[in-house]
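Researcher: Dear colleague, please comment on this protein.
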Amino acid sequence: MSQAASHPDRRRWRAVLIALLVAAAGVFLVRAVGGGWRGSSDFALIYAASRTWLIGSNPYDAQDQRQAMDAVGLSPDWPAGRELISLYPPATFVVLSPWAAAPWPIAKIGWIAFNLAMIPVLVWGLLKLGQWPATGRHMLALAAIVLLAGPVHTTFRVGQLSLAATAGAVLGLALHQRGRSVSAGLAWGLATALKPQIAGAFLLFGLCKRSWRACLIAGLTLVGVSLAAIVPMELAGISWREDLARNIAAFAAGGQGDPGPLNPFRFQLINLHVPLRAMIDEPGLVSAAVLAMVLLILLAACVLAWRSRSRDQDLIALSLLALASLMGAYHRYYDAVLLLLPLVWALRRLEQRSLRNQPAAWVTLAAVTILAVPGAVMLDLAGRRGLIPPQISQSSWWQMLILPHQSWALLIAALALLGAMIGGRGQTAEGRSQKNQSHQSRSGLHQKAGDIN
């Protein structure tokens, strides 16, 4: 009777999930794809630098980039007043060369289409990490979550590389778990070449798991792609290293990468430097404090990955590596696509109700959900437009706690995962102790039986 009653319930839930997915797809098409069609300003900058490299000029020189933009008709689409400053490593230009070889309108459409193709790849990879079936309610729910995620929308709207890099890295991990080390290494290498601050966490995870073959392939791929970009510039006598260093310095000191008060848009960043700079007006001390916290998290994650014998511990370690990356270096809201990793761990843990550390999963889920919408950007914009009274928007507690709340959420998620890691070790030790006691009890019974005989 209960089984018969459960079938309508399953069909009802499936219908609800299908309706949610359809609604999520509608929102996604309007906000993400439509926004990318009208915008893609970040991709315009990356395209201009890649195009400049492709024609043999300096991709880190603003004048050379402007000439390349004029040649392909990109200048009219460039946002007024936005500075041309190229920061991506040379390897990125090689990976994007198929788009850079096309005219700007085609390249823009092609990049949107490529990111659309990465959505099912990302969903499939996350399903494999969660050990969920590729069809059914898990697929429907996870696809809806990805389509509704704010970082995914922002990636499309500005034409960023975060979604493609994350999807490629997750694909590599899923392939590695299926024993396809060469394909996994290629995926990791290309994803790292595309955006190293996103995919680098996966490569470090592979090293900690002693996946030597996949990591070797990834390293060779990354080196090969980098040489393909650097050698032509060196032979042409282009001063790319000096110009790149100058761009990074200008970007970090008073530019859009500065977490301090010189950057009016600093609350669009999610790294941990932002709230700490609001509390401590010492850039060196803040950098040292963030570095110390991140190194401790990295050490814990690497030790856990090295010793891990379960999928649950692997997900905790990988999630910690992703969070350490987001907290420890320059990242904007769109890079929070990486938070799909701790989200998968939290949902998987909550689904297995018999396991301990349920509070850690709930805290992680809540912290990750905070970044489902660009709350910091919305609050900052509301303050600029006078929708929030100046006595609130300019107060110290608002600047330290409320505006950078998403940075604090990353730290809270990391602490929850560290707690789950410690609790998991305790649970494992307890399980081993119970197993040993059971074994000793059985041995004692066998001995007594032998004495009686």
Q: What stands out?
A: DSSP finds 22 helices and no strands in the chain. The two ends are 51 Å apart (CA to CA). Confidence is low (pLDDT under 50) at residues 1-5, 426-453. Residues 405-452 form the longest helix (48 residues).
